[in-house]
Design goal:
Distance between the termini of chain A: 27 Å
Largest sheet of chain A: 7 strands, mixed
CATH architecture of chain A: 3-Layer(aba) Sandwich
Strand content of chain A: 35-45%
CATH class of chain A: Alpha Beta
Strand order of the largest sheet of chain A: 1-2-3-4-5-7-6
Oligomer: homodimer
Number of strands of chain A: 7
CATH superfamily of chain A: Gcn5-related N-acetyltransferase (GNAT)
Helix content of chain A: 25-40%
Structural class of chain A: alpha+beta
């Protein structure tokens, strides 16, 4: 699948929300309130600069994934970026997440960030953990029982980090 | 020094801001922008519920420190609290930080939180690290070069955690 990454615009939101909604409602991989409404989700994801939101588009022009990145800390730690990713479940496993991850690493480096920190990677989200490790992210620690999974109960929450 | 901890009110702000300002301007221990203005600082520290802000008051009624605590994550990780502390440098070393820490641990436990996570403890802030360890917090990881200290350059940034 040929994937293009481009900056998100307001007109992309209607294509993003359906798969984002499914991910949020499932409550298995993200630390968002499961009943987050569309307006809250939009204002969480489509942030003003210095945040940066992109979409992944397939050859037909369909939006198949999205990423946002923003400073993880302020002040003396503002050189650490954060990033979040969502891929349409119907298109998973076709390199969309990897393309978004590679893009964000390059973007953050070009912006002058010195590292990317993921604050909350659910340990049962093994596909994501494997992908981030393959892109050079390290599990720095796992918060024990840090996440309450709707099916598995309390599971670990990884903090992952990659220097740029 | 006899210390009382009580919920902060708007009328406490003028007593909090002078020592908070000094700590923020120094830029050695907190990941705030060093030029944060008073309004930004106030809205960062005096948050609506479920956040909770307290002040430490000495026997004369003077405000000598403050703490705020709030959920560290949302959704499936909302059982992890965050907490931040500031003590008037002129009153440091007299148990104010410890009294605030003990209060916050009890408060978070009573609120139903299952853990407290500190996201960013600067490794050169050895007095704070020692205090948190003595109160049962563990250094889960240290982000290498996670903090740019105005004097020491890039130093590590601890993530500390205590189960309740």
């Amino acid at each position: 699948m040929s994937i293009t990454i481009r900056t998100a615009t307001d007109s992309d939101w209607p294509a993003v929300w359906p798969f984002m909604r499914d991910i949020i409602r499932a409550g298995e991989t993200y630390t968002y309130d499961r009943d987050l409404d569309e307006g809250q989700a939009r204002s969480t994801w489509f942030l003003p600069p210095p945040a940066h939101t992109v979409v992944a588009v397939d050859a037909s022009g369909a939006v198949v994934g999205t990423a946002k990145t923003n400073p993880n800390h302020m002040g003396g730690a503002s050189h650490i970026a954060s990033a979040s990713f969502m891929v349409d479940a119907a298109r998973a496993g076709r390199g969309v997440g990897r393309a978004l991850g590679e893009y964000v690493i390059e973007w953050a480096r070009a912006e002058g960030y010195r590292a990317i920190q993921f604050n909350a990677v659910v340990e049962t989200n093994t596909r994501a953990v494997r992908l981030w490790r393959s892109l050079g992210f390290e599990i720095m620690t796992t918060l024990p029982e840090g996440f309450r999974h709707p099916e598995h109960g309390y599971v670990g929450l990884h903090i992952m980090y990659r220097r740029l």
